[in-house]
Amino acid sequence: MPEDPTSPPPGLAPVVFHLPAAPRRDDLSGLCGQAERLLRNHPGQALLVDATAVGRADLVVVEAVARLALVARRHNRAFRLEAPAPLRNLLALTGLAGLADERPSAGPATPAG
Q: Cβ(107)–Cβ(74) under 8 Å?
């Protein structure tokens, strides 16, 4: 089976972004900016968001995870999430459970025809 061209090279560890224990909504733009800089400085590496320090899973944390997944997608990187069960459960409840281990797209979608 051929290798996935969007996957990072074998043995290349993901770059880790630590989500703060209690992010506030007004922190989110800055967090996304930090993640973007991290990805620019580590070409080809997946983004691993470590949310294990999050004390209380709420919708602000869900928004942070979703926005960080979008940052990874914009940089065509895989996105992984290390999170406690309450946050994973809340992601599932909001329909975002698939964000936990998202691969980058192979390119633009082609229309069905």
A: no
Under a CB-based contact definition with an 8 Å cutoff, are residues 61 and 55 in contact? no
CA 81 to chain CA mean position, Å = 6
- Which of 77, 64, 79 minimizes the C-alpha distance to 32? 64
Residue 7 in domain: no
> 71-91, pLDDT tens digit by residue?
999 999 999 999 999 999 999
Confidence grade of residue 101 (pLDDT, cut at 50, 70, 90): confident
Q: How many domains does the chain have?
A: 1
DSSP 8-class letter at 30: H
pTM, to two decimals:
0.82
* Containing structural domain, residue 31: 15-102
